[in-house]
Automatic annotation (TrEMBL):
GO terms for biological process: positive regulation of osteoblast differentiation. The gene is Atraid. The keyword Transmembrane applies. It comes from Erithacus rubecula. InterPro entries: ATRAID, EGF, LRR_dom_sf. Keywords: Membrane, Transmembrane, Transmembrane helix. Residues 108-119 form the EGF-like domain. This is ARAID factor. The chain crosses the membrane at residues 125-146. PROSITE patterns: EGF_1, EGF_2.
Length: 156
């Protein structure tokens, strides 16, 4: 994806839809900052060229090779932060596994059959119970309102 020399002052919001990009060029743009969250989900990104004043997203540890020439910085070979020897700041909780989520970013995915906050709930969501309670409450409230409000309806 070549976005070089597009007069970008910030990362375009539409970039979030290009998570399958392998090569991305942002050089020759007057970018002032490159937030790490801009590359959330870019797990396939292998080469990123940014203007020289900016650092690679995720820092040097997120890339295998960072080189700089006179006008740009090339970040090449995205590393998997889950396999790094550097200890993670926020390790994943029990019953979950670490998965890469972009340069220097991770996500914790719950192991089956766990789900919910910090993967503490086991089993599946009780759809039948939830649907039954919601349906009963909706029908009861509808009947109550129909019964109390039908006298206010005008008849032809």
């Amino acid at each position: 994806l070549d976005l070089s020399n597009c007069s970008l002052h910030s990362v375009p919001p539409g970039l979030a839809e290009a998570t399958t990009a392998i090569v991305l060029d942002l050089t020759e743009n007057p970018l002032t900052a490159l937030p790490d969250a801009s590359f959330l989900g870019f797990i396939h990104l292998q080469s990123l060229a940014v203007p020289l004043p900016l650092e690679c997203p995720g820092g040097r540890d997120a890339w295998q090779d960072v080189t700089a020439d006179r006008s740009s910085r090339l970040c090449h070979g995205q590393r998997n932060p889950c396999n790094s020897s550097v200890e993670l700041a926020w390790p994943c909780p029990e019953n979950s596994v670490c998965a890469p989520d972009g340069p220097g970013l991770i996500q914790c995915l719950c192991d089956s059959p766990f789900h919910g906050y910090k993967c503490l709930r086991e089993g599946t969501f009780p759809m039948l119970l939830f649907g039954g309670i919601l349906g009963t409450a909706t029908v009861s409230l509808s009947l109550l309102l129909w019964g109390t409000q039908r006298r206010k309806a005008k008849t032809p």
